[in-house]
Write a structure and sequence with these properties.
The structure is a homodimer. Chain A is an alpha+beta fold. In chain A, strands 1, 2, 3, 4, 5, 6 and 7 form a seven-stranded mixed beta sheet that branches. The longest helix of chain A is centred in the middle third of the chain and has 13 residues. The radius of gyration of chain A is 14 Å and the shape is globular. Chains A and B meet through strand 1 and strand 5 of A and strand 1 and strand 5 of B.
């Protein structure tokens, strides 16, 4: 098999609710380069649907059990990841509880929408969040 | 690099218009196994955005210049392709003109929505078209 395609990834915009009140979204501090703030996410494994990958990665990186609301889009600019070409399926999802960093996530935080630190964000995640906020 | 993810593909639901009148969608007869009717599509190349891959593949397989309307969804069931695991970004797009089969497409046809031969379709393309028709 000599087929090469971009690596397939998933990222999640997790909306945190506390008793039906929206508290903010989850961002992680990355443990590995590129270092910075990011949406939780990771690689899709062979044999796994993108929705399954999303739920697994959110659990690994934030300890949260998420439910998927909808697909925001597929982000596939070859320069979006400085390491190699990835294409990310970005899902909007919902969860309750307090995120706890794990795996590639050194820390996980809830950010109020008006307090997101865009200048600290890596990859194209600032752009993704702006797309998300525009369609709110 | 030891990362393995599903192969990334694109498929297009091409809506053909003749002087602003909707004529039908394009299906191709595949040249290579699995043999059957399919949406035009193919692999995303490294270095290429999914939207670019879609436009390129539609041109190669149908000779049409398409404009993208929107992403319908990402279809990633590991069993959707009998050969290996693929995840497909399915786009709805528009074009004018008469499709002409090329590359993996032995023939290309315009099908009226009510005349689609679902029983001849391969992969999960019958399901994709049903999702498309449900949201029309």
């Amino acid at each position: 098999m000599n087929i090469k395609t971009p690596f397939l990834t998933v990222d999640g915009i997790i909306k945190i609710f506390e008793e039906d009140k929206f508290k903010g979204i989850v961002l992680i501090k990355r443990k590995n380069p590129p270092i910075g703030l990011a949406l939780p996410g990771g690689f899709v494994e062979v044999g796994e649907r993108v929705e399954e990958a999303l739920i697994r990665e959110m659990k690994e990186e934030t300890s949260l059990d998420v439910t998927i609301e909808r697909l925001l889009g597929v982000y596939s600019d070859p320069k979006r990841d400085p390491r190699f070409h990835t294409a990310s399926c970005v899902f909007i999802c919902n969860a309750k509880g307090i995120p706890k960093g794990g795996d590639d996530a050194k820390e996980a935080y809830i950010y109020k929408l008006e307090e997101i630190e865009y200048d600290l964000m890596v990859f194209d995640h600032a752009k993704i969040l702006k797309d998300f906020l525009e369609k709110l």
